[in-house]
Design a protein that fits this description.
The complex is a heterodimer of chains A (274) and B (291).
Chain A: H1 2-33, H2 37-41, H3 55-62, H4 66-97, H5 103-113, H6 122-131, H7 139-142, H8 149-159, H9 164-172, H10 177-188, H11 190-206, H12 209-214, H13 223-233, H14 238-270
Helix pairs in contact in A: 1-14, 3-14, 4-8, 4-11, 8-11, 11-14, 13-14
Chain B: H1 7-35, H2 42-46, H3 57-63, H4 66-98, H5 105-117, H6 120-130, H7 137-144, H8 156-184, H9 188-196, H10 201-212, H11 214-229, H12 233-238, H13 250-260, H14 264-290
Helix pairs in contact in B: 3-14, 4-8, 4-11, 4-13, 5-8, 8-11, 11-14, 13-14
The chains are: A mainly alpha (274), B mainly alpha (291).
Chain lengths: 274, 291
């Protein structure tokens, strides 16, 4: 019994230490972002600000275009999320519940394509976006992100469990498939739509390489692109950079903490092994 | 069941998604292969009729490009060290959290998952300061232990391990959640039966947990491999591929060639090789699973 208690204590100690280590970079990021220049000059470095200040956040908005970047990131992430919700749920419904020629082979093909890295498509995609005149536009980022195989897969898996009798009842009442999709499937799929929304929003918010390629002017930069760009000029100003990192991370962290049930459920459902 | 089908309904529901995926994903993948057979560069970008088909010339060039071999070596180093480390950390934390006696399972799961949802560029910025040779906190902690400061990102031998440490911290939570789901799906009675037979904790782990986690391992392995091979933002933000090219990854080289020097044909060849590497990695893991 004693050994068991020892093991129990051990497991908790290890987990707590790992949790502290995991959280430390976040704690330090917030802490430094609130420090004054004098705090930074102290040795040994203080863990928490001695004279907490918001001046660096102020500077981000007043001297740099932080508000603009926040706006750009939000607009793009919301645009991608809204369109992907509709387009993927339509396709997901059809793949789950309607019979059409080639459905299963098409779906298998889509699944197989999930292992293709997006980087393999970027060069020709850039040329296409350029031909369409969409370089340095929001559309150049939103349009290629409007549908995703993962999204279709997620919705399909969820809708598979909806009984056919429910849909047949609606069909007997004379409802068409679009009507069924709109007034039956969409309300039914609410939990999985929330999962997909959180996934898509975060994916778009955190995306770096594609916006870096497409956005050429500073007034269109998303937060990650702006942050990487600022790192070049302001590397000597840790407090400012940390404040920028806090503002970039904060929305996704809050979203995750509020909706983590949906997020983690979606993650595990998306990983369903055959 | 009443089979009143309107064939057009299904078509119109699927069509928008298939059109988008076809035009903005499948088509570029195919075009990427074609692009890699051309000498598409800055001149071709200005006027398409400067474009020439050069067959396998880009690939021949790749074989003689020391920079490409540097990127290849670096990326394999990152994957070979980072992926097993990340999967081990995930499995270890999942096993610890999943024990029935552990309190606050939800709390630990949330904490360990937090880095996964955060923006890579932002945490790379934070870690760059943590790694700073003079003012960085990491070296301060080492100095308390009497260890000489390490030039984490500036020392050619330390730069890649530093990126690996950060990458493992950033994403072990992702696989942990998958492992927890896998562990939860193992019926408890198997362990109870083993206990009756007198099997110890390690024996139970070896003969029940590991074999029944096999599907999770394949999924986790494939996802991790795909993710780790695409290494880009970490070196872009933290080291710019340096010092002396020791953190230059395949994706970073592709980006530099394609979007800095506008050698799009050559960059397409690089991206296609990366694609083939990831594809064969996935394939090998699936074969291993069949066994």
């Amino acid at each position: 019994m004693k050994a068991l208690n020892g093991g129990r204590l051990m497991a908790h100690v290890i987990l707590l230490m790992a949790a502290l280590l995991t959280l430390f970079p976040f704690f330090w990021m917030v802490s430094v972002s609130l420090m004054t220049a004098e705090d930074m000059a102290l040795f040994p470095p203080p863990l928490t600000p001695v004279h907490p200040t918001l001046e660096h956040y102020q500077a981000l908005f007043d001297e740099l275009a932080m508000g603009r970047y926040l706006f750009n990131s939000t607009l793009i992430a919301v645009g991608v999320t809204m369109s992907s919700l509709f387009i993927n749920s339509m396709a997901g419904y059809a793949f789950a519940k309607l019979h059409f020629w080639g459905r299963d082979s098409l779906f298998r093909l889509l699944l197989a394509m999930m292992v293709i890295p997006s980087q393999a498509a970027m060069l020709p995609l850039f040329l296409m976006i350029k031909q369409l005149g969409l370089i340095n536009t929001y559309a150049g980022i939103i349009i290629p992100g409007m549908s995703s195989i993962f999204g279709i897969f997620l919705i399909r898996q969820y809708l598979k469990s909806v009984p056919d009798s429910l849909l047949d009842a609606a069909r007997i009442d004379g409802a068409g498939e679009f009507r069924i999709y709109w007034s039956l499937i969409l309300p039914l799929s609410k939990p999985v739509l929330v999962s997909l929304a959180v996934f898509t929003f975060m994916g778009s918010w955190n995306d770096f390489m594609w916006p870096l390629i497409i956005l050429t002017q500073e007034d269109r930069f998303t937060l990650p692109v702006a942050l990487a760009n600022l790192m070049g000029e302001h590397v000597q100003d840790p407090q400012l950079m940390m404040a920028g990192a806090v503002l970039t991370i904060l929305p996704v962290v809050l979203l995750f903490l509020l909706l983590q049930r949906y997020y983690l459920e979606g993650l595990v459902a998306g990983g369903v092994k055959d | 069941m009443i089979l009143v089908r309107r064939p057009s309904a299904a078509f119109w529901l699927v069509f928008p998604a298939m059109l988008l995926i076809g035009v903005f994903f499948v088509l570029p993948i195919v075009a990427s292969l074609l692009l890699s057979f051309t000498d598409f560069d800055l001149y071709a970008l200005a006027r398409w009729d400067h474009l020439r088909l050069i067959g396998l010339e880009n690939y021949r060039h790749l074989l003689n490009d020391p920079l490409f071999f540097r990127a290849l070596t670096n990326t394999f180093y990152f994957v070979a060290l980072g992926a097993p480390l990340s999967v081990s950390a995930s499995l270890l934390t999942a096993l610890l959290i999943n024990q029935r006696m552990v309190r606050g399972q939800g709390f630990f799961r949330t904490v360990f998952f937090l880095p996964v949802v955060t923006t890579l560029v932002a945490v790379a910025v934070v870690w760059r300061y943590l790694y700073h040779p003079r003012s960085g906190l990491l070296n301060y902690v080492l100095s308390l232990l009497g260890i000489e400061p390490i030039d984490w990102l500036g020392d050619p031998d330390w730069a890649m391990p530093s990126l690996i440490i950060m990458a493992v911290w950033k994403n072990f939570g992702f696989n942990m959640v998958n492992f927890i789901a896998g562990l939860k799906s193992i019926p408890r009675r198997l362990y109870e039966a083993a206990e009756v037979d007198g099997a110890g904790a390690f024996e139970q782990f070896r003969s029940i947990t590991l074999p029944l986690l096999a599907p999770t391992f394949v999924f986790v392995g494939i996802v991790t491999l795909i993710g780790y091979f695409q290494l880009f933002a970490e070196p872009y933000v933290m080291t710019q591929g340096g010092p002396s090219g020791r953190t230059l990854s395949i994706a970073l080289l592709m980006f530099e060639e394609g979007f800095r020097w506008w050698n799009l044909g050559y960059a397409a060849a690089i991206s296609f090789v990366l694609f083939l590497i990831i594809l064969s990695g996935t394939f090998i893991q699936m074969l291993v699973r069949r066994r």
